[in-house]
Write a structure and sequence with these properties.
The complex is a heterodimer of chains A (405) and B (273). Chain A is of the alpha+beta class and 405 residues long. Among the domains of chain A are: 1-66, no CATH class; 174-250 and 352-359, no CATH class; 252-348, no CATH class. Chain A is 31% helix and 39% strand. The longest helix of chain A has 30 residues, at 64-93. The two termini of chain A are 48 Å apart. By secondary structure, chain B is mainly alpha-helical. Chain B has 2 domains: 1-117; 122-272, Four Helix Bundle (Hemerythrin (Met), subunit A). Chain B has 9 helices and no strands. In chain B, helix 1 (2-26) runs antiparallel to helix 4. Residues 266-273 of chain B have low confidence and may be disordered. The chains are: A alpha+beta (405), B mainly alpha (273). The interface between A and B is large, with 50 and 45 residues. Chain A: Residues 11-393 form the ResB-like domain. Chain A: One of its GO terms (biological process) is cytochrome complex assembly. Chain A: It comes from Serpentinicella alkaliphila.
Chain lengths: 405, 273
């Protein structure tokens, strides 16, 4: 058992795991992640696609073998941190072993004849608080500086452990959904009793036509009371009760209604790229594309993002067959057999990603520890000085002191 | 102003590299002195170029491929001058100037059009994230050059010129270690600030985007370097090879990922608003 624990906490095992995770990450960066099989079929040969799907390289960071690597590294770092702390504390407070230190030679050392001279010398080179130890005919004057430096690598390991642990926790408790809609619409946030009201959505343009910002004005309502109301824009999410609302996308939507003769079958908001299905009638209308400023010269392009000449590209399916496809002007009545439908009032809709990710504070704390640990490790080199007097013989030993002496 | 000073920078850096090469090939010390003078003049023009870009764009030049590459080349040049002044060994320029030119010419190949920032880049985190990346990569470039010198010195053990102008192994190893230590601290700041920024913009602080993944890979490579160096005594040739490999990974993280792989850092194609 001791052998197993020793191996699990060893640096060799830790380095092997790091190397293993680097190899998997390399593969993950080369193979596009989280796509459908058809996507890979377009890119690679059948053999490669099979390999990707079989090995789960399409979602490598959530694969069991990546998880095993991460968990094993966490165990390694945890055990390493637990077992090392005792020896580090001992090192910090013990008497330095002069036998493993560098021995210095200098004519000036012969001048250190008595305690006062030694005290002055120690003070002069920065060891104001030094200790004296006497045993078996030898007297040791020893001091340490930058003792915190001994903790550097330990703090880094602890930080990495916390980052991995909290990141994994965050991944496996991750909640993600979306709310979207045109201004003056509302939607219940999935799995909660929070109503999200979208009051306004605007896109700010610069003089050169480039987009400066996307801004959604939203209100959160709970038990018929407003709990938050603010503008959400990129880099400025709304946060409430662990949920964060991010401005992530936008598109076009229109009002839509479909009649069968004089009967109104459906009236709804229709979003670009979606379809409205009337199962009972066997009819499906697809809102394929929106052109805010349709080029009337017959090209299927929009001349600008402004609503100058709005057209909609639609497709009609009946009993599973495509029966019509055309462009129609916004507000125009389109007739197909006994059905009449109309797209009107085109406007932008906003799409907000809503995430709830736990463990962020822990991961952040771990990151801060890594940074602090690196600074301690590289810029607080522990310095040790031992002056050993044995009878009339005096020797000076040190660690990381070569510049000072 | 920006264009002229940038062209002057390229010319001066190129002449500096030539001077350093003459110094190394024909073993004439005065050319090394010309080399450092040319680099310093190049940095002066480079600074003017970056400054005028900042004034024209009304922001720091850190937002696209050209701006980052030219700032990165500036970062390597400044790091090089600092190390050259501190350690005073002339041969360093022979190995650093090709790296500076590589990055500077990569910048020259990119579009220099000033475009306003897309919404995702409008964050105060950009300054910390990108400026630390510049100095981190600059420090790793110096470590790579110094390690390369180590390998050259190791190969030409009995050459008196090499012995005179390339410092001994201990000094080279120590400089490489210090540069990597500085680079790793900076790289950690880059990753942490990027994670905070990603959380603010996209809701996830880490999503295995290729750039993030390669930052992780380079961080681990240098972490392994430091582990084996401090604990296993890899202070010599092996450490030097490791440092060169680490910088190849850095170059791939910067140039390879941007050109070959797509992700949230591919600002040439708008994936997110």
């Amino acid at each position: 058992m001791k052998k197993i624990i020793n191996y699990l906490k060893s640096m060799k095992f830790g380095l092997m795991l790091l190397f293993y995770l680097v190899i998997l990450s390399f593969i993950g960066s080369m193979v596009p992640q989280g796509r459908d099989e058809i996507f890979y079929s377009r890119l690679y040969s059948e053999r490669v696609v099979n390999m990707i799907m079989l090995s789960k390289a399409d979602d490598i960071y959530h694969s069991f073998y990546f998880l095993i690597g991460a968990v094993a590294l966490s165990v390694n770092l945890f055990l390493c941190s637990i077992f090392r702390i005792n020896s580090i504390v001992k090192t910090i407070y013990s008497i330095p072993d002069y036998k493993v230190l560098t021995k210095y030679k200098s004519k000036e050392f012969t001048a250190l004849k008595d305690d006062k001279k030694i005290k002055d010398f120690m003070t002069e080179i920065g060891f104001k608080n030094y200790n004296i130890h006497e045993a078996k005919g030898e007297k040791l004057y020893y001091g340490r500086r930058n003792r915190i430096g001994y903790l550097g690598s330990w703090v880094i390991h602890l930080g990495v452990f916390l980052v991995i642990a909290f990141y994994t926790y965050g991944q496996y408790t991750y909640f993600s959904t979306a709310v979207y809609g045109v201004p003056a619409s509302s939607q219940v946030l999935e799995g909660t009793d929070i109503d999200v009201k979208i009051h306004d959505f605007k896109i700010e343009y610069r003089d050169d036509g480039s987009i400066s910002q996307y801004i959604s004005n939203i209100e959160l309502v709970k038990d018929e009371e407003t709990v938050l109301w603010k503008d959400v824009f990129v880099n400025n999410p709304l946060r409430y009760n662990g949920y964060a609302f991010y401005q992530t996308s936008t598109g076009w939507a229109t009002d839509f209604e479909i009649h069968k003769g004089d009967e109104l079958l459906k009236k709804d908001i229709f979003y670009e790229g979606t379809a409205i299905i009337e199962e009972k009638e066997g009819i499906v209308i697809q809102f394929a594309k929106f052109y805010p400023d349709f080029d009337m010269r017959g090209r299927f392009v929009s001349l600008s993002n402004d609503l100058n000449n709005p057209f909609i590209l639609y497709t009609v399916f009946y009993n599973g067959h495509r029966v019509a496809m055309n462009v129609a002007e916004a507000g125009e009545s389109i007739e197909w057999h006994q059905y009449t439908f109309k797209f009107s009032n085109p406007q932008r809709y906003t799409y907000l990603q809503v995430n709830k990710m736990k463990g962020k504070v822990g991961a952040m704390f771990g990151s801060a520890l890594i940074l602090i640990g690196l600074i301690i490790c590289f810029y607080f080199k522990p310095k040790e000085l031992v002056i050993r007097r044995e009878q009339n013989k005096l020797q000076v030993y040190g660690k990381n002191m070569i510049v000072d002496i | 102003m920006e264009n002229y000073s940038f062209i002057a920078t390229l010319i001066l850096y190129s002449l500096s590299m030539v001077a350093y090469f003459i110094f190394f090939m024909y073993r004439k010390e005065k050319y090394a002195n010309y080399g450092i003078m040319l680099i310093m003049a190049g940095v002066a023009f480079h600074t003017i170029s970056l400054f005028s870009r900042s004034v024209q764009a009304s922001r720091l030049p850190l937002s696209n491929q050209y701006e980052f590459a030219t700032s990165f080349a500036w970062g390597i040049s400044v790091s090089f001058i600092a190390f050259e002044k501190k350690y005073k060994f002339k041969a360093l320029g022979t190995f650093v100037t090709p790296l500076i030119l590589l990055v500077a010419f990569y910048a020259a190949m990119q579009s220099r059009e000033i475009r306003p920032l897309m919404p995702a880049l409008q964050s105060r985190w950009i300054v910390l994230h990108v400026s630390t990346a510049i100095f981190s990569y600059g420090a790793f470039a110096v470590a790579c050059a110094v390690s390369f010198m180590y390998l050259i010195r190791d190969y030409f053990k009995n050459d008196p010129f090499i012995m005179k102008y390339i410092p001994d192994f201990k000094v080279l190893d120590n400089i490489s270690y210090r540069a990597i230590a500085l680079g790793l601290v900076m790289l950690t700041v880059v990753i942490v600030s990027g994670a905070i920024w990603a959380e603010k913009a996209w809701g996830r602080y880490w999503q295995w985007d290729p750039k993030e993944t390669w930052s992780f890979i380079t961080w681990v490579i240098y972490a392994i370097y430091l582990h084996v160096r401090l604990s296993r005594g890899w202070k010599n040739k092996k450490a030097a090879i490791f440092a060169v490999l680490g910088f190849i990974a850095i170059l791939f993280t910067y140039i390879g990922v941007n050109t070959l792989l797509s992700g949230y850092h591919s600002y040439a194609t708008i994936l997110l608003i």
